[in-house]
Amino acid sequence: MMNLMTHWFDQLTKTYPWLGWLKINLGVKRWIVLLLGGIVALGVGIAFALVELYQGGAMPLPLDVLTMQFLPRWFRAILLAVVGIGSVVVSLWKLSDTILSPFTTNGKSIVQVVTEHRRKGRGPRIVVIGGGTGMATLLRGLKRHTANLTAIVTVADDGGSSGRLRRTLGVLPPGDFRNCIAALADDEALITQLFQYRFGSGEGLEGHSFGNLFISAMAEVTGSFEKGLAESSRVLSIQGRVIPSTESAIPSSPGAIERVFLQPDDVSAYPEALQAILAADMIVVGPGSLYTSVIPNLLVRDIAAAVKASRATKVFVCNVATQPGETDGYSVIDHLKALEAHSSQNLFPIVIANDKQVGTLLPNLEWVRVDPHLNGGHRLITVDVALADKPWRHDSEKLASVLMKINEENLVAL
To answer: To 10 degrees, what angle do helices 160-169 and 210-222 make?
Structure first.
């Protein structure tokens, strides 16, 4: 019955959008009631004043004319109620349009924007650990479900524009941060196009992306890279926050990687990263380059300790395809073994792996083999999370839906 009424109300709001303000949990009705109560109190006060003036003989017109005594009482009550409610509704509607219309985006109505904001604001607190394009893909999907997102990004980008800025300005390489900020932006298409734009000419500018320069400039203006990220996120109104963990370096020489390490090995974690992990409802590591994006974060002892201490649901998202020079020939178990070998503990008991290995991969790529069983108390979830036209990458919507379902199942279990 409740579902039927909800469906009926949703259909009604399509015809009369202003009725959307009456939706449950929108946080507006209480203020409408307070406004109406204030108007009623004001009306009663004015009525008392009119009676006092009338009885004192100071009224320029007879009170029965002002109060329409010549009409039946029931008719006056209905007439005043209709006029009063209609005036309040129209005034609130027009006032909200006037005040809030500059803040609406993508052609959405004010009611839709407020409803979506409230829904996402009540979403689970999710921490994503990693870096690279895989992390941006995951954030792009999750932002449709919750605004309580924290991206903890490794600082391992030494090449291209990021590497040059790191060497010349001494700032942390902004490449992965740029991708995450663009993925979390409300107008993602425009911000991505702007941030990924690379200058094709110009002394000192050639090869640099605008996003890298923007973040580096923010770091200079605010006095620190962390503040620069925060201000960049605020200016661009991103849904969530992006913060650093630490940095690492992986050589590009051929051969299998046996182990990565931090130097020095006692580097301190960024405090806000620890706070986010300990307060999270879900912690997700991956997808992304195993040795250059995922593992470096967990080499920070405080980060690994916080993940272990957290009571959140912990999920490892395995890559769809192998990465040349890093994970050639790796299966799901190989990824998991490498992760646990560097963190020295089973931090992520839930593993998501793609099971739809259909399509043509890029040269030198292979499907990550899905092992039938995982030992050590792991729960393996095999599901289609690959992008249809680029099967070596994750589909942001599919992956986010799987994670939200896992979160809901764990909430029920609690």
So the answer is: 30
